[in-house]
Design brief:
With 310 residues, this protein is α/β, with parallel strands linked by helices. The protein contains 12 helices and 8 strands. 47% of the residues lie in helices and 14% in strands. Strands 1-2-3-4-5-6-7-8 form an 8-stranded parallel β-barrel, surrounded by 5 helices.
Length: 310
């Protein structure tokens, strides 16, 4: 499948075809949530899961916060999604503040609960910009974590990729070396941090192809409604926020409906251009808000499975 961005094809589509017209709906989507911090947020999250379930997601994942209470909510949420919603659920695990034995025990609990997919991350400890310090008895890197999880059970494992280079990496090549180590340790696929230009993804894929990395690399999509919040996230993961985005969202803080429409349109255009370049799998960072992700998938031709077959 052609992964290259084709400007001639894009120009033809722009001039001759409706922007989102005629798409067959053959994309596949997965969705990421964060664990709720209150009963109200738990209800909001469950509503989001139920709203996205008809799209038959490849999987949904729940992030993993440091600290006991957040970890427990992650565990409970993942178990509930599998048991009650019947959706394949992936649990996040990090190397932060846990020994190898503690991490293995959590992985064993997940396996017993029916979890077969782990998103394995090094994680970040301390203040933004602070150096990562592994637990004295813990896994020192995501690659070590992947290998350790594979020792526990035959999990499907997703890892992170950074099209614009992780802030801790000495250079782009060393960052790709680290990705290769994670995949060599047994990871199934990589999911990218968010980005806002299709060329960012295609250039990154070209670099991976040149290195002989053939594992699936799924683009991570962040529908942005709060540019300041997105800028904070970007600073932690090395992503660039384009200057035009500030102007686009200016004046919309008091108009949440219009802001959501703009956010969905911007993200959908990015996804459509990736789709035009041959991408079919997408991972959405939902921030526990389902409507934006649902709207984007709808624009790309996805429809509820029961309606499609009814």
């Amino acid at each position: 499948m052609n992964k290259l961005f084709d400007p001639a094809h894009e120009a033809k589509v722009a001039h001759e075809e409706p922007l989102f017209g005629g798409l067959p709906g053959d994309m596949r989507a997965s969705f990421e949530f964060f664990p709720p911090k209150s009963e109200k947020m738990e209800a909001q999250l469950w509503d989001a899961v139920q709203e996205l379930k008809p799209l038959d997601p490849s999987f949904v994942s729940v992030t993993y916060g440091a600290g006991g209470s957040t970890r427990e909510r992650t565990h409970d949420t993942v178990r509930r999604i599998i048991a009650e919603a019947g959706i394949p659920a992936a649990a996040h695990l990090t190397c932060v503040d846990a020994s190898k034995a503690e991490t293995r025990a959590v992985a064993e609990q997940y396996w017993e609960a029916g979890v077969r997919h782990i998103v394995a991350l090094r994680g970040d400890a301390g203040e933004p910009g602070a150096a990562f310090t592994p637990h004295p008895d813990g896994f020192a890197s995501a690659a070590e974590l992947v290998a350790g999880l594979k020792d526990v059970a035959d999990f499907e494992i997703s890892v992170a990729a950074y099209p614009e280079t992780h802030p801790d990496a000495s250079c782009p090549d060393s960052d790709i070396d680290n990705l290769a180590r994670k995949l060599d340790a047994g990871a199934t696929r990589a999911i990218t941090q968010f980005f806002f230009a299709p060329e960012t993804y295609f250039t990154f894929r070209d670099k991976l192809d040149a290195r002989g990395i053939t594992a699936p690399v799924v683009p991570g999509i962040l529908p942005v409604t709060n540019v300041a919040q997105a800028r904070k996230f970007a600073g932690l993961c090395g992503a660039q926020i384009p200057e035009w985005m500030d102007g686009l969202f200016e004046g919309l803080d008091e108009r949440p409906g219009a802001r959501d429409l703009v956010a969905a349109t911007v993200a959908a255009e990015l996804v459509r251009r990736l789709y035009a370049g041959g991408v079919r799998d997408f991972h959405f960072y939902t921030l526990n808000r389902a409507k934006l992700s649902y709207a984007i998938c709808h624009l790309l031709g996805m429809r509820p499975k029961d309606a499609a077959h009814g």
